[in-house]
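Bit of a strange request maybe. I'm writing a small parser for structure token strings and I need a real example to test against, not something I typed by hand. Could someone generate the tokens for this chain?
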Amino acid sequence: MRALRILLVVAVVLGGILVGGDRLAAAWAESEVAGRASLAGGRTESVEVDIKGFPFLTQAADKRFGEVEVVARGVHTQAGGKPVRIGELTVDLRDVVVTGDWTGVRAGSATGTALISYADLVAASERATAMEYGGPGKVKVTGSVAVLGRKVTRTVVSSVSLVGGDTIKVRADEVPGEGIPLLEDMIRERTDFERPLGRVAGMRVSKVEPRPEGLAVTVTGQDVAIAG
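Reply from user aminoacidic:
Good idea to test on real output. This should exercise your parser:
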């Protein structure tokens, strides 16, 4: 019995060492990948990588990973040929295969959410002066125009939708005209806009949803390549 207890203790200790070593290797790899990953073909302020599954070393030897989560913050990319900043991009990669001499990875499938702050969305609109959450499916957009030498500012409640499969459309539900000719059209020129997104990190846009913290863009993809 004493020998059995000693054997069990040794097994537990060795198991702990193996698990600890595996996790250390995983942490090192996550740090290395985060330092090299490029999700959207542009500058990224920070990247965090979480390699799921155990043991890591077995997956690494096979160059195949079941699931990898990547969180990129401050992603500077292009949308419709113009710059746009994504505050946070979270991507869940599945069936991940390392390509080349560890120079990149390719995921069998991927899902993610790109969160664009309202300040960044205003900058991308190049028209509005302010924007905030306006309730489910809505945002409040503020725009200003000059009428007869007087600055007129209006805040409207606008619907947000996805058109053409890759374009964000923001359109005011109603614009008070107050009897001023063409005022509604002028205000709409400052508050209504469309911004093509194209593909985000190689994934197509499937949904847009206003949230209190910004506009959430849901993306999905198959056979997605991640540089680095």
